Amino acid sequence: MPFPTKARTLLAAVAMALATASGALADKIELLDAAPEDALVVNIDKMKYETPEITIKAGDAVTWTNQEVMPHNVHFLAGVVADEAVKGTMLKKDESWSARFNEPGTYDYHCTPHPFMRGKVVVE
Amino acid sequence: MTEGQRAAAEAAAQLAAGEADEPVILNAPEPDTRRVYIQDPAHFAAVTQQFVIDGDTGRVIGMTDGGFLPHPVAAEDGSFFAQASTVFERIARGKRTDYVEVFDPVTFLPIADIELPDAPRFLVGTYQWMNALTPDNKNLLFYQFSPAPAVGVVDLENQQFDRMLDVPDCYHIFPASPTVFYMNCRDGSLARVDFADGETDVTNTEVFHAENELLINHPAFSLRAGRLVWPTYTGKIFQADLTEDAASFREPFEALTEQERADGWRPGGWQQTAYHRPSDRIFLLVDQRDEWRHKTASRFVVVIDAATGERIAKLEMGHEIDSINVSQDAEPLLYGLSAGDKTLYIYDAESGEELRSVDQLGHGPQIITTHDMDA
């Protein structure tokens, strides 16, 4: 049985999010198909975003990396980073999802199947 | 004589007497404490049914249709029953509509149909207290799971959706006054939510159970008494008395003896817990089972004095029972519902004697609702 590679999973994540974001996406957030070396990392472990609030500068990238076998994702509600919701694909253990934030603001997110997992990105 | 035989004899007599047949739409009898509603989630089918039954005679006296995993409620005073439901424009796909329907309890005609904006219902196997009416019957409260925990307020009096209340990571809804309800939270506490005057004020009780004490999805709750009865997977019973002001926890006790637990006895089923308010008794579905077969049917019900934790009876049901409830009159009926048999077995709650049964109740009936009409 074939398993998707990490790269394919990331591409699928980007394609899915772009498809739901209908153009407005590129302004506030840019989804990346690979984790930039200078990205700030938010690890996910023990049913938590380890850094639930992260402050960055406009233009910085953030990479979320799941450290546990329980799948997690990053889900921005409609109107937060785009007109439509941006619902990242589920990350298995050691998989990552990255986005660059272009506009100052506070962007709340949660994990789709675990709504009690919440985080925010503050862009200065 | 069976119900069918009685009707046949009656029709034969009318025919012999030369009485013409005048077909009409019937009304159901007035609601009473022995009316019982059987919701059939039909194993996640896109449409569902609810059977309305006279527990005294074991007759189906009416039915209501529902959509996907609807949630039934019944005003304790018998003035109406209602449901929160979900339909789609192409059977199980297309535009989704969530709505609340209120039914006249005699004609069964819908007297309100209130749309819920943005499809906020939590689509889940039906848990009896995931939705609730406020004790004044003016609002229906329903739960939203995703994208964030929230409780929707549906104004039944004015037949309109009111608003969503942001709540913590908590589940189930137990109203204690027209504007206060409680929820069970991930951290092991109860949340008290006051939504009076357009505000949402949330406070938490102390943590009342340990992380490894797993509370089941089917607690019993009496809107009239404010009593919450919440078993764990092992049959440890937590109780709280909920008032507008506060939740008071009672000393927990074990529903099963040490010997029974050593012999593999555990609660199991769907709606596993019932509470009889007038006698302050708890009914719990139990059987011998593996720890992780907590959703299989049980063949026994233990009856417990809620005040002392003392065992009153252990009733053998004679069938594979998934859900139980009781009528709230002085000499209650015990309802035992088998999703596998699609049959409601009706027992004398005191002796455990099976009195009658009603079969052919849909595809997988699971939820039993009654009216607690003797205030």
TrEMBL record, chain A:
GO molecular-function term, one example from the UniProt record: electron transfer activity
Domain spans labelled Blue (type 1) copper: 40-124
NCBIfam families (UniProt xref): amicyanin
Name of the protein in question: Amicyanin
Keyword Amino-acid biosynthesis: no
Gene3D superfamilies reported in the protein's UniProt record: Cupredoxins - blue copper proteins
Phylogenetic lineage: Bacteria, Pseudomonadati, Pseudomonadota, Alphaproteobacteria, Rhodobacterales
Pfam families, sorted: Copper-bind
InterPro entries: Amicyanin, Amicyanin_Para/Methyl, BlueCu_1, BlueCu_1_BS, Copper_blue_Plastocyanin, Cupredoxin, ET_Amicyanin
Domain of life: Bacteria
Keywords: Copper, Electron transport, Metal-binding, Signal, Transport
Signal peptide: 1-26
CDD domains linked to this entry: Amicyanin
TrEMBL record, chain B:
Keywords: Disulfide bond, Electron transport, Oxidoreductase, Periplasm, Signal, Transport
One Pfam short name: Me-amine-dh_H
One GO CC term on file: periplasmic space
InterPro entries documented for this protein: MeN_DH_Hvc (IPR013476), Metamine_DH_Hvc (IPR009451), Quino_amine_DH_bsu (IPR011044), WD40/YVTN_repeat-like_dom_sf (IPR015943)
Any one GO MF annotation of this record: methylamine dehydrogenase (amicyanin) activity
Main location: periplasm
GO biological process, one term: methylamine metabolic process
Record carries keyword Electron transport: yes
Locations listed in the record: Periplasm
Key word Electron transport present: yes
Record field: catalytic activity: 2 oxidized [amicyanin] + methylamine + H2O = 2 reduced [amicyanin] + formaldehyde + NH4(+) + 2 H(+)
EC number: 1.4.9.1
Cystine residue pairs: 170-185
Described purpose of this protein according to its UniProt entry: Methylamine dehydrogenase carries out the oxidation of methylamine. Electrons are passed from methylamine dehydrogenase to amicyanin.
NCBIfam families noted in UniProt: TTQ_MADH_Hv
Subunit text: Tetramer of two light and two heavy chains.
Homology family: Belongs to the aromatic amine dehydrogenase heavy chain family.
Name under which the protein is recorded: Methylamine dehydrogenase heavy chain
Origin species: Paracoccus siganidrum
Lineage: Bacteria, Pseudomonadati, Pseudomonadota, Alphaproteobacteria, Rhodobacterales
